Amino acid sequence: MTLAGAVATGPDLCRLLAVPVFTWVAYRDFETRRVSSSVWIPLSLLGTVLLVWDGWLAWTAGGTGWTYEFLVPTALSLGLVVPIAYLFWWVGGFGGADAKALLVLAVLFPTFPEYALGSWTVPLATPPLGAFSFTILTNAVLVGIALPLVLAVRNAVAGRIAPVMVVGWPVFWERIPETHGRLLETPAGLTRSGLDLDALRMYLRWRGLSLAELREQPEQYRDPASLPAEPNPPTDGAVTADGGQRGDGGTLASDDDSAAAEAEDGSTTAIEHDDPWGAEAFLDDIEGSAYGTTPETLRDGLEVLAREETVWVSPGTPFLVPVFVGLVVALGYGDLLLGTLL
């Protein structure tokens, strides 16, 4: 609770330090899909110190401050938001950075802060009893729900009408190597579970290929006999990752290994390979799933990218972006869900 004549309590003022940090991690996550775990350590330490400070202030204030303004919200924050973050991470609903962010918020914002701005006190919409970190989470979920609607309107205005218009947009093939997200196309048509573009970059780096080179000679690189004898490190698929790869790409040993057979009339027909594009060999060599990618998903994605000029891609907006927006909205307005229901 804000003291008379004060802008905010000391702990609440210190909590505002989280805003520029979350601004940076949201930007970083959107641009690179990579956030260092080290960023959460100082915020966790800060949250722990402020939690103890808040508890001491509530204890010395007397009355119901210790029970209803500190203990109950703190118990809800740690006992509700922390398990939710862990559960969604465990089932794959959240990435590691998303879960860590929510864990930090549970410690850093257990109670509702108050900031006096002249005659105004924010947040404006506050539940009678609740954890501020849970309000940030529900705000983030509501913002996340609104993003597909914004995407659909954007595509509709541009005349891009398709079943996947609420989750993606068309991207020219030359931008794919620098694009994050998931391919929404297969040779059979549109899909919601196409090739992860980080996995695509891992494959191309493993072979020492560029997407342009693959498109120039798809028949050659479709043949698993063209795989390089010494593949490169695949990296983690980040756009900025540098694995020091060699640009050999892999070549066919001889004309006998050609990816197409010549018929008597001079026409050519594609040869059926046991492992087109060397997709299975790639996944076996890296001893991993490459973000859940299967050989079939990788092959389908490569077939599409080898021939299409423009492809539908889901940007897969990282959850840290809605979390950041949810934090800012919570600090200024408060609980969006409460405001919507009232």
From TrEMBL:
Coiled coil: none annotated. It is found in: Cell membrane. One of its GO terms (molecular function) is aspartic-type endopeptidase activity. PANTHER family: PREFLAGELLIN PEPTIDASE (PTHR36506). This is Peptidase A24B, FlaK domain protein. It is a multi-pass membrane protein. The keyword Transmembrane helix applies. Gene3D superfamilies: 1.20.120.1220. Residues 254-265 have a biased composition (Acidic residues). Residues 218-275 are annotated as: Disordered. It comes from the Archaea. Keywords: Cell membrane, Membrane, Transmembrane, Transmembrane helix. Residues 18-143 form the Prepilin type IV endopeptidase peptidase domain. The chain crosses the membrane at residues 39-58, 70-89, 101-120, 132-153, 319-341. It comes from Natrinema limicola JCM 13563. Its main location: membrane. One of its GO terms (cellular component) is plasma membrane. Residues 306-336 form the Preflagellin peptidase C-terminal domain.
